[in-house]
Design brief:
5 strands; three-stranded antiparallel β-sheet; Arc Repressor Mutant, subunit A; two-stranded antiparallel sheet; 193 residues; mainly alpha
Length: 193
């Protein structure tokens, strides 16, 4: 019985260590959003708020379940649509550059003896996280705090209000994990808001 208790306690401590160590997340974010040198090759960054990066990651989410993977031409058409470009304006060279960046950052892998790619597990997690944070938190949040909305802009919806309410504890947890000052009364839920 004692061995089972120690094993359970050890697993709990491992989970708590991972969930409270923001440095792991910061390193993973930095690895994708800053230029790197991988195997002697320089790979440019995938900036978080760049529309091209967000479109690339959205396309990765679309192609994540294809067992045969995807090719340059498959991604070109979708990426052009997401960027609001004419598909003929998206050249194979530009797409090859983007696929190389994704591959060297470890988000996709080339299928052996083909010109096709597959989304890696890390690539799917990164693409989902980046696109969800950008579309569900960053854009609505910035729209809400922007002082002057253009005339005729839609008012804040109940969905955005609810998302803001749900994001508030997340922001507090982020601040607590990353060294921001703690609330005055730690166990009082109202002190968090």
């Amino acid at each position: 019985m004692r061995a089972v208790g120690f094993a359970a306690h050890r697993r709990l401590l491992d989970v708590q260590t991972l969930s409270h160590d923001c440095q792991i997340g910061a390193d993973a974010f930095r690895q994708v959003t800053q230029p790197q040198v991988v195997g002697g090759q320089r790979v440019s960054a995938l900036p978080f708020a760049d529309p091209r990066t967000q479109a690339l990651l959205s396309v990765l989410v679309l192609y994540c379940l294809l067992p045969q993977g995807f090719a340059n031409k498959d991604v070109r058409a979708r990426l052009a649509l997401l960027l609001g470009l004419d598909p003929s304006a998206m050249t194979p060279g530009k797409m090859t550059y983007d696929l190389r960046r994704l591959r060297l950052h470890g988000l996709i892998e080339r299928l052996p003896r083909t010109h096709r790619y597959r989304v890696t597990a890390e690539g799917l997690r990164t693409a989902l996280f980046f696109t969800r944070v950008y579309l569900r938190i960053l854009r609505p949040g910035l729209a809400r705090i922007t002082p002057a909305a253009p005339p005729g802009a839609p008012q804040e919806s109940s969905l955005v209000r609810r998302g803001s309410q749900l994001a508030r504890p997340l922001c507090v947890c982020w601040e607590l994990c990353c060294g921001a000052p703690r609330p005055a009364r730690r166990h009082d839920a109202t002190a968090l808001f």
